[in-house]
Each structure stands twice: as C-alpha cells, then as structure tokens.
Amino acid sequence: MDQTNVFSLDGKLALITGGGSGIGFDIAKCIVLAGGSVVITGRREQPLREATETLGERAHYQVNDVTERALLDNLVETIETTYGPIDILVNNAGINMKKPALDVTDEDFDRIVHTNLNAVFSLTRACAQRMIARKRGSIIMISSMAAYYGIDRVAAYAASKSGVEGMVKVLASEFSPHGVRVNSIAPGFIETAMSKTAMSGDPDRFTRAMRRTPMGAFGKPDDIGWAAVFLASEAARYVTGVSLPVDGGNSIGF
Ligand code: NDP
C-alpha cells in the first residue's frame, strides 16, 4: 500500500447511480477530488450533462433508468468498453414517498422496492461478475437510517433499505473471498431535494429530526461523499460487510 495517500483513488473508475444531483453528485465530486474518474447515471440527461461539466474531464455520464433491469448488463458493458474497468460501484439512486402505511398502494410499494432494492441487486450482480473475475472492486450501497428506526410514513422505503442492509452482509460474505468488498453507508438527515420534500408540509418535523440528532444539524451531501471515498480506498482494505452511519449521531440512540 502507498502509505503516503491511502485515500487516493488515482486511476480508479467509479459508477455512481443517481449521480446528477443530491448525494450522488457529491459522491462523484469527492471521488474526482480523490483522483478517480466517474460515470454518473440518472433518468434525465440535463442534470447529468451539467454535473459532468462541473466535475471536469474525468467525469462522464450515461442516461439510464435503474428500474429497467434488463438493460443493466448492457450499461455495464458499454461503460467498461468506453471508459475501462469499473473499480467502484455506488448504488445511490433511490426514491422515497411519505404516506401513512394504510394509504400505501401495492403500486407505490412495488415502485419504491423496485428502485431501491431490486435494481440495486441487478446492477450489483452485473458489476460484481466482472469485479470478481478481476479480483478487485468495492461496492457501496447508499442505504438509510430508515433501515434501522421506525420512522413514520416510510414503510416501503424502510423495507427497501432494510433489504439492502441484509443483502450487503450476504454479498460481502460471498464476494470478499474474491477481492470484492461490499459495504453500505446509512445517511441520517442530509440536505438534498429528497429531504426537503420529506420535511415539507410539517413544520414540526424539522424540530423533531434535530431533537434526534446530537450534532443538531443536517449533514451535507459531501459528508456522504467522503465516507464513500474512505470505503472505496485502500484505507478500508480490511472493511467489508459493514453499515457505516453518517448521521450526526442519530444512531447513538437516546
Ligand atoms: P435526490 O432525490 O436528491 O436524488 C436522487 C437521484 O437518483 C437523482 O439524481 C435521480 O435522478 C436519481 N434516480 C432516481 N430514480 C432513478 C432511477 N430509476 N434510475 C436512475 N436514477 C434515478 O435524493 P438524495 O440525493 O437525497 O438521495 C440519494 C440516496 O441517499 C438515496 O438512495 C436515498 O434513499 C439516500 N438517502 C438520502 C437521505 C437524505 O436525507 N437526503 C437520507 C438517507 C438516505 P433522475 O431523477 O434524473 O433519475
């Protein structure tokens, strides 16, 4: 290991789903700042184009909807043919919806689980096959503290993120003997469009959220970005199968 900069991602290529905005954009930004290259994906081209312009020449994009699971093998093939082997996969794309459980339709539930869990499995499988053949890789899931706590009105979201957390441990057990580490980051309240929507329409919600957060503030998207750099880097070479809370202390529990 190069002891001078164990956090360097020099020469590494990362695929980051949902990288055109929010947390995904900052994960891409931090990986580029750490020396890596990124391919970001999302359903809308304009934010992806603007994001890559901001990120610079080591950033590229592919328009892709992760719920089109039959296209994910092709996505990985196209990226590897064009930009080289994917060293880091960050499954960040996700959706949420706040509704009391009794109002959640089967369609609502399926849509959220399809995006946040089923697609994550399919894309991970597509990348992991290639990583295992090369005997190197780091797979990072962006899960949520909702996987661990009974936050009201997010039944489908919590189910999907809990599924991801369970999957991380199994995949880490299966892939780590082949040089591929699998971990997750469980963000707390992070300032993005998703959390703004979640807080809207209920003025007390912010106060309640901060009461649960010992650090007394929302996190910034790059707080998740730097955690991803750590997990992707040589500094975390002996770290696999963990869920890293980045949540201002929410997970302390009090
Ligand atoms: P945003 O809504 O701000 O961004 C979500 C991103 O995912 C967008 O770039 C969106 O792009 C993309 N995306 C959504 N659906 C799809 C799809 N089907 N295919 C491809 N891309 C898609 O969310 P955040 O940045 O806040 O959240 C990112 C991740 O962090 C999510 O997994 C979320 O669950 C998790 N998280 C966030 C927290 C927070 O407080 N913000 C807390 C805990 C976890 P487009 O619309 O163009 O497809």
In words, what does this structure look like?
The structure is a single chain. 44% of the residues lie in helices and 15% in strands. With 254 residues, it is an alpha/beta fold. It has a single domain (13-245), classed as NAD(P)-binding Rossmann-like Domain (Rossmann fold). The protein is globular, with a radius of gyration of 17 Å. Residues 17-18, 20-24, 41-44, 47, 65-67, 92-96, 115, 142, 144, 187, 189-190, 192-195 line the site of NADPH dihydro-nicotinamide-adenine-dinucleotide phosphate (NDP). InterPro entries: KR_dom (IPR057326), NAD(P)-bd_dom_sf (IPR036291), Sc_DH/Rdtase_CS (IPR020904), SDR_fam (IPR002347).
Q: Which band does the percent of strand residues land in?
A: 5-15%
Give the low-pLDDT segments: none
Largest sheet: 7 strands, parallel
Radius of gyration (CA) equals 17 Å
Q: What ligand species are in this complex?
A: NADPH dihydro-nicotinamide-adenine-dinucleotide phosphate
The CATH architecture would be: 3-Layer(aba) Sandwich
CATH classification, class level: Alpha Beta
Kindly name the structural category: alpha/beta
Give me the strand/helix succession.
EHEHEHEHEHEHHHE
Domain count: the total is 1
Number of helices: 8
Question: What coarse outline follows from CA principal-axis ratios?
Answer: globular
CATH superfamily: NAD(P)-binding Rossmann-like Domain
Trace the largest sheet across and list its strands: 3-2-1-4-5-6-7
Portion in helices: 40-55%
Query: What is the total tally of β strands?
Result: 7
Distance N terminus to C terminus? 40 Å
Whole-number mean pLDDT: 96
